[in-house]
Amino acid sequence: MIICCGEALIDMVRAAIPRKGEGFLPFPGGSPFNTAIAIGRLGVPVRFMGRFSTDFFGEILMKRLRDNHVEEDLTIRSPQNSTLAFVKLEKGKEPQYIFYTEGTADRSLNIEDLPKKLPNNTHCITFGSIAMTMEPIASAIETFILRENALQGQGKEAPVISFDPNIRPFMIQDRKAYVKQFEKWIAASTIAKISAADFEFIYPDIDLEKALQKILTMGPRMVITTLGSKGALALLRRNDGSVTRSSAPVVNVPVVDTIGAGDTFHGAFLAWLELKRKMSRSALANLTDTELYDALFFANKAAALVCSRHGAEPPTLKEVETFTPKAAAKPHALAKGAGKPKAAGAHAEVPKTPGSETGEAPPKPAVKNNKKT
Q1: 3-state secondary structure of 21
Q2: In this structure, are residues 245 and 234 in contact, taking their beta carbons and an 8 Å threshold?
Q3: Are the C-beta atoms of residues 118 and 161 closer than 8 Å to each other?
Q4: Cis check: omega of the bond before 136, within 30 degrees of 0
């Protein structure tokens, strides 16, 4: 069981309306919400923890959870309005967002709303995104994460905690204060999934290799970074202090848009771990090179399928398993000291080169590079 917590909102996407000019169409969204949908569609038990409005937008969000096998027993209903995110899409450009969040239901999750005890089969908790830039939800989720992570120091089995900052700079008023909090959340995380664009904001003066190593020294077992056309790279810290590196290539598909690509990647990576019974802190430390590669490539395929569709519409497990790309880039791993690749944007974490969706098998895993940190 995976628990996703954070914002759940309505994306108001600009669209041409016949004989009416331009308008906005409502679509369920929010990074952790999309991640929960992705996990549910892949057949993995998942719950969403958060507040939902009782307005008609809230009903749309709740229906989407139910339709995608996301359990709702950790949700709270509230008469407050739903959060709205107006989205502007332009060909060849990243989505532009304007958020309306003041006093809304999801933002108002507070410490009193937290469950006293989690279901016994809870193996993972995910958090991050704009929820961590708004109060009181940010403090509530931080309290929740710190509480569950502390179980490990009490001799109990703590769940894997996976953090995806999915940073929206315009939601952050004080960058230095945010970075301080970010590092606190990193220290409580088992997995940190951070895009190249996130690194550009957090550590603009540090190249990617040093930034990855910096994250690992803060406590996570694994750091994953998505690198646009260069695929995905993971660093795994083993119990002896050595670091195993693995990379997986992008998957070439005709790109419609990239909404929800990073969220789907995150959800698919975690779903693979759960499906393969690798979702525990001890199991992560012992992942083989092949397993780490397989998890990354599985997530890349899921994210690519989202990019071939309009909006955040994650694939099913059958769709991912039967999707055999004809051509994929060669595995990529950055050498130590390499400069930071140019960030393509918060959602541009998957292929952007048109290609075919059928044919050859993926390339073999990249060779590991073990070294002490």
Answers
A1: strand
A2: yes
A3: no
A4: yes
